[in-house]
Amino acid sequence: MKIAIVCYPTFGGSGVVATELGIALAKRGHEVHFVTYKQPVRLGLLGNNIHFHEVHVPEYPLFKYQPYELALSSKLVDTIKMNGIELLHVHYAIPHAYAGYMAKKMLEEEGIYVPMITTLHGTDITLVGKHPFYRPAVTFSINQSDVVTSVSENLKQRTKEIFNITKEIEVIPNFIDKEKYDHSFTDCQRSNMAKEEERIVTHISNFRKVKRIPDVLQVFYRIQKEVPAKLVMVGEGPEKEAAELLCETLNISDKVLFLGNSNEIDKILCFSDLFLLPSESESFGLAALEAMINRVAVISSNTGGIPEVNIHGTTGYLSDVGDVDAMAKNAIKILSNDAVLSQFKENAAREAKKFDILRVLPLYEAIYHKAYAGRFKTV
Ligand code: GMT
Asked: How many structural domains is the chain composed of?
């Protein structure tokens, strides 16, 4: 099929999922067209089956806010017409589903019917909880999508609680490409990060409030008092500076490395023993899944969709949001015994394989075909 994918091109989870999905679809022979304002960070070389169309929003002095939705919907109309696109898949409701709907309607005026799949990722839903004035537009664009998917069962329930949704929501979980991790790095360059006897604890995120970065540091503070350890913090975001200050206050700066954004997540996870994800809310927790496939145990909060990924007592442990004592206690239990640690690592990799893209991709393909077959039924 010829598929247009709309996503955020940044390091955020939804952009990563959309990009990896597009790459996998292209490998399966589909023609994939990414439509967004910058080439997605995980998208490598473009080729016969993978194309990128940049949405450009010209600066115009009259506008206080440049109209991205308008530029996106116009770009979609052009891209769909010029490339014979058969299906539109938008990741993240705000404003992608809204712009997608406008494009769809403009095309219908010309007798072109392109079904739209909207995938909800979580922050598009919670954002409306915080800013209810978005509700009418988001409810409308979700209900007007031909198919709506959510990345976890929990997100599906939350969406139904927050919005008046008339559309069925299909759960298609996030995924990882197991094959990418089948190679075992012979040298993770672990010695660059920590001493032989030290455990390596890792956190990867966009350092927003929702990630509860101070909890990451408080858990690590307790860990390093009991077990020799280093903490590797990967990512950039508004909480980073305060985190660096808190490290000084806790007197752990020499044990914490801030690496910034990275395209080499798998290399970092390769030398990690434990992943910390104490988030306030998390629709899925893709970062935890990426850790697990790299044989890293997970200590997380029990919020949102995380329990669908991190299995308590098997791949790691879950605790209430903010319960840093319980998180630290469980982390120490895993880290202080070699046999226990390797059992958790093995379990993590095994459970992660259940989310292999080869299992998940056919679920998307099935809804694509269903939506395409019913494309003349306008919603
Ligand atoms: O919070 C993030 O890490 C970014 C955010 C996004 O919208 O890109 O991630 C959301 O989507 C990811 C992919 O589906 C999920 O794995 C994350 O759990 C979700 N984040 C939240 O719900 C806070």
From this structure: 2
Handedness of CA 340, 344, 345, 346 (dihedral sign): positive
Q: Please name the residues in contact with 313: beta carbons below 8 A apart, sequence gap of 6 or more.
A: none
Write the pLDDT tens digit of every residue in 41-71: 878 777 779 999 999 998 888 888 889 999 9
Same domain, 210 and 336: yes
Give whole-number Cα distances, 313 to 60, 172, 297, in Å: 56, 25, 10
Does the beta carbon of 290 lie inside 6 Å of ligand 1? Answer: no
Range of the domain at 117: 2-175+357-373
| pTM of the entire predicted model | 0.93
* Residue whose entry in the numeric block shows the structure tokens 């070389």: 45
Whether 203 is in a domain gets the answer yes
Is residue 273 within 8 Å of residue 200, measured between CB atoms? Answer: yes
What is the C-alpha to C-alpha distance for residues 118 and 90, in angstroms, rounded to an integer?
5
20, part of any domain: yes
Q: Is the CB of 281 under 6 A from ligand 1?
A: yes
Q: Which residue has a Cα nearest atom 12 of ligand 1?
A: 13
Residue nearest to atom 21 of ligand 1 (CA): 282
Looking at the fold, whether 137 and 276 belong to one and the same domain comes out as: no
Examine the domain organization and report whether 190 and 170 are in the same domain: no
pLDDT tens for 175-191 read: 998 887 776 556 678 88
Task: Retrieve residue 28's tokens.
Answer: 């399966």
- 152 close to ligand 1 (CB < 6 Angstrom): no
Q: Is the CB of 285 within 6 Å of ligand 1?
A: yes
Would 59 be classed as within a structural domain? yes
Q: What is the CATH number of the domain that holds 323?
A: 3.40.50.2000
d(CA 137, CA 142): 9
Q: Kindly state if the Cβ of 156 falls inside 6 Å of ligand 1.
A: no
